[in-house]
Amino acid sequence: MGDSSDTDPPSKQGPPCPFCDAGMYKRHCKYVCPNHGVVYDCSDPFR
Q: Which domain of life is it from (predicted)?
């Protein structure tokens, strides 16, 4: 009941999307573009 790790709102702390420059959201270990979905994650070696 008290665990909300899957429902926490994303924070807008990520870099701009490389495709459309929209502000990306940091969600757990991923950067999510509101237009393109997940763009980067922790295992991305090119980040």
A: Archaea
Among 1, 31, 2, 3, smallest CA distance to 17 is for: 31
| Gyration radius (Cα) of the chain, Å | 12
**18-46 residue pLDDT tens:** 999 999 998 888 899 999 998 888 876 66
pTM over 0.70? The answer is no
- Using an 8 Å Cβ cutoff, are 22 and 33 in contact? yes
Give the start-to-end residue ranges of the domains of the chain. Answer: 10-47
